[in-house]
Amino acid sequence: MILSTSLLIAALAATQALAIPSSAYTFSAYPSSTASPFTPQNLTSFTQPSSPNNFTIDGPYLEVVHEIYNLTTFPTGVAVDQDNRIFINFPRSASNNDITLGLADSFNTTVAYPNASIQTCQPGQNVSTCFVNVQSVVIDSAQRIWALDTGAGPGQTDAVEYGAKIMSFNLTTNEMIDNYVLPYSISANGTSINDVRFNLSMSTAGVAFLTDEQGSLVIIDLASHTYTRRLFNTSVVAADELFVGSFDGTPFYEWKGTQRSHVGIGSDGIALANGNLYFAPLASRRLYQINQTVLANASLTDTEMLNAVEFIGQVGSYLEGFTADDQGRVYMGTAEQNSITYFNTSISSLMNSTMLNGINASSTNATNEGVIPASDIEVAPFVRSADIQWPDSMCIENGYLWFTTNQLPLQGTYQRNDITKASLPYKVYRTSVGGAGPAV
C-alpha cells in the first residue's frame, strides 16, 4: 500500500503526538539476514511480557478453601451445606479413581462420601445402587445431597444399563433416600448426563432438570419417577460445528494421539431462576432460556418445545458450570476469559442492585416487578483472575459462590499425544456474593 503525501504527514504528526521516548526501544539499524524481521534486535532493556497466568484479580477476593494433589483425580462438581462442609466429585472419565464422591475433611484431603463401599460397583452388583462415575453433586432446597452418575466408566461412551442415575442422601444420617435410574431407552441412546438442578415447588414432589452433553435436556418427575428427554438433537443443545475455543491463549481441541478433532460437547451448564431454565452447549458461545413449566409439559410436541426456547445471545466465551442466587442472578463459568460472569434475571434485583449490568428497566417493564426478557439480558463480569483455570462447577451457600477449577483443556484428552499438562494442585475457591443465598 502506498500512502499519499498528506496521509504520510498526518501519520508522522500522530506519531510525534504520542511522544514515545526514543530510549524506550533501541534496535540495530536493521536485523541480520538470519533474524526474523519481526524480532527486535539488540534491545537495551527488555521486560518479559506477562503470561496468561500473571494477571491479578478483578472483582471480589478469591479464597482457596481446598486443594487436590492427585493429577488424575481432578474435580468437577462441588456442593456446600449450611455447615460449610465441602462435597466434591471426581469423574472417572479417564481414570478409575478410588473416590468418585468425597467430603473434604481437611484443606488437602478428602474422604469417601457417603461411605467407601458405594464408591465402586462390585462384580454382579446392581449398578443402580452404587457409583459408576459421579459427574456432579448438588444440594437441593430441602437439604438433600444428590449425586449425578453418568453410568459410563473410563473409556466408555455409553452408560451401562441401570448405571445412569441421580441418587439422593440424607445429610445428617448419610443414608440413601432415593434413586432415579434413567430408562435404558434414554441412557443407551448416546446420553451423557452432566449436571442437574431441582425445582421442588413443581409437581407433587418436585422436578429435576438434567443437561445431556450429547444434545438434550432430561426431565424427571420426582414423585412419579417418569423420565422425558426433550430437545433431542436440536441446534439449541448441540455444539457448534467445527468449534474452536481458546484456553490461556491456546486453541482448544480434542486429541487422540496425534489425531486432532473438534470439541463436540453439547448442553452443559444449567441454572434455574425466576421460573426459567438457563442453559448452554459447552462447545459454543450461545446462551438460551426456556420456561420451566413449559419444559416439564410432556404433552407438547418437539416443535412446540423448540419454539419455546429463547436465544439470549452470544456471550463471548464457551460456558461451563452455572449457578443462581436468591436475588435472581445467574453466574456462569467463562474460562475463555479466566473468569466468572453473571446476569440479572429479575427486574427488582436489577433496580435495587449496585452491580448494574446496563439494562434500562423502564424499557422492559413499567413496574419494579417481573423477569428481564431474553432480549434485554446483558452478561457482565463478576470476577476474573489467572487463577480461574476452568471454573467447572459452582454453587451458592452462606453468602459465597464456591467453585472448582480443574484445568480441563490441559488434561490428556485435550492435549497432543494425550499427555496431561495440568499442574497441581487443583483448587476449590469461594468468593463473596454479598450475603446472597442459593436460588430456591
TrEMBL record:
InterPro entries per record: 6-blade_b-propeller_TolB-like (IPR011042), MRJP/yellow-related (IPR017996)
Leader sequence residues: 1-19
Record flagged with keyword Repeat: no
SUPFAM superfamilies registered for this protein in UniProt: NHL repeat
One Pfam family in the UniProt entry: MRJP
Lineage: superkingdom: Eukaryota
Key words of the record: Secreted, Signal
Location of this chain's protein in the cell: Secreted
Keyword NADP tagged: no
One GO CC annotation: extracellular region
Family according to the record: Belongs to the major royal jelly protein family.
Protein name stated in the entry: Major royal jelly protein
Annotated organism of origin: Letharia columbiana
